[in-house]
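User: Fold both of these, please.

Assistant: Here is the first one.
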Amino acid sequence: MTAQAPVSRVKELERRYLNGTFAELCRIESPSGHERACAERVIAELRALGVKVHEDDAGPAAGSDCGNLLAFISSDWPGGSEDSTRHGRSLLLCAHLDTVPLQAPVEPVLLKGGWENANDGILGADNKAAIAVLLALARHVRREGAPVDVELLFTVGEEVALAGARAFDASRLNSDFGFVFDHASPIGEIVIDSPTHFRIEASFHGAAAHAGIRPEDGRSAILAAARAISSMQLGRLDAGTTVNVGTISGGTGMNVVAENCKLVLEARAIDDQRAEDVVAEIVDRLHEAANLPDCDCDVDISVQRSFSGYKLPVGSRPVRVAEQALRACGHQPAHISSGGGSDANALIAQGFATVNLANGTERNHEPGERVSALALEEMLDVALALLDEAAIHAPAPAL
């Protein structure tokens, strides 16, 4: 007898709410640092359900106009307390409120079953698809209950080196572990490896001179920066390591030998020591270029570890919960290594076990960003299944 595919638990009214909420959220501009309007929409929705939302004071540290939001929904609603601390009986689900900068206003349109921006810019599915799913899940749990308590965390500044999650106090959480939905790849993928990330800034200082009359009196900072870049390995260095020059700026005019030039670079590596070695080589190349005879510039270099990488044990309870939830929804779990960071990196760094799951979005950070209506529904199915599996895999209560 042929096995039947799992039936979606998402009902028609929930499906309409999910898609309508997603489109509404996308229209709210919330680039990193300006998440307040989106946060207020989330707060209003949860409060309408009778769910209290607490905002922390991470805004200034994260460079945002608001803090992270944390909400709690008791599994035995409405009789339970929002301050329940039943160890092992609570699950965290997390999404971020911010997007990368917008190239154009967002006007979501549904084309051939998928949401896209009618204008030439990002859609904001990263990460508003996940926000819509968590709000739909809150409505579902509020109406029908859940096998475990639910904590919902909405962070700010994820797109700027996980600023909000790094400023969040994970000791506030009741849950033993949690999940974020923040990887733009097919649903079913589980991120078990994520890189360490470094930001490197280099400011070259030379001497200005008239480019047509006294060029030999000048010392070009732009030339030094160019020599440094040309001496580096860029792009994908190996399967787990990448280097990129993100921005270059300098000079004051076409006819002036450039006195100043600034580079901003990043280096990522799954292996922490590999990341540090690559950064050390970049720093050497920057100094060498500044000291070349035809450059003879000073250079100021700053190196910042934005976030640390992780490797999840494949047999750990959170990974097993994810696998079982995905199978229950008809997806084949696949362990992947990602070159991207997520709030999972910041929470894991605080000792809170977190798994990043693929959310079915496509081409994030690009004008062609897209997510299908089916993927939104499947994400909600997976989120509900995570609650079920977390209850099954919860530790036995202390006697």
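And the second sequence with its predicted structure:
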Amino acid sequence: MSISPLRAAMVPVTRQMRAYFAPVNRVTEMPTIFDPGVCGAFPLDSPPAPWLDLGWVENFARWYGTPTDVVRSGARAMPAAQFRGPQEAGVSFDFRQWGKLQMALAGGSEHMNVLAPAAGSSTPEPSGGMPAPGVAVLAGSTANELVFGAGVANAFPDGCLIAVDLDYQQQTGYVGAGIAAAYVSSPLAVKQDPNYVRRVTFNVGRVAQVTETTVLLEQPLPAGAPAAGASAQVIVAFVDREGGSFFQEWSALFVAEEESGGRVCFYYPRLSPNSGAIGKASREGLAVIEKTLSAMSLRASFLAMPYSDPNDGQSVLCYRSYFPAAMAAVY
């Protein structure tokens, strides 16, 4: 039996799944939209803002637990109509790369930046004690270049990580530039700490080069140019915690990059990290590189949240798109 070359092109072949995440506006619950009509050529190595490339993932698995039942009628209780029960779906996978977002998504609650300690600080805290004071970001700064003025090299050496955000100003609600990083119920809950927003913000970057008055970043800040009044502090580590009351929410796009010309995309408008779905399984895993040498991966699990499709008002949990290879058969 021979197979037509055109039909062979109908088989999507891939090596790995690639993950992209973007923030959901927590106030309006508006997700970041992936429109397959205009995003079919989504550039995997340079995704359009606000999508963030989180690298390749392994052990990708989707599940859909929405039951379907029937309405029965007549003497013989014959099926008359179908209906769907409570919607439930999710996705899980292993991050092979470690970074702030990967750790935050695998952890599920607030994710902390450990700020560089102040000189002589003597009160240790598990998520970082009293930090060195922030340095004001000056006008003219961009997402890639931050203006500080003379002496900047003393505060931000080459290669250091920095958090850039506003001081905490006693407000309640969601905090964090561009991406909701935490929810403050009371100023007393965060000890009225002026550094609190920078402790949790996702607006972080690595210093690539220091000039006389500015620092250049390796990657643009996720929230774009800093807001007026923002300050920056050095980060020495990231830390997440088991527990916490804050639930993150993200839009997610998973792409099976094409080896045979076809591309498959899974778009979740709203995903909430749900580490409890892993049950009692390990939160990390070891992938063997060669005997006695393993790479540690971050295990993540998510619950899909409903999104109302503007085209027909249907409640949707996930969209699956297929972009056929050139000249592939339609069916």
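The chain has five helices and 21 strands.
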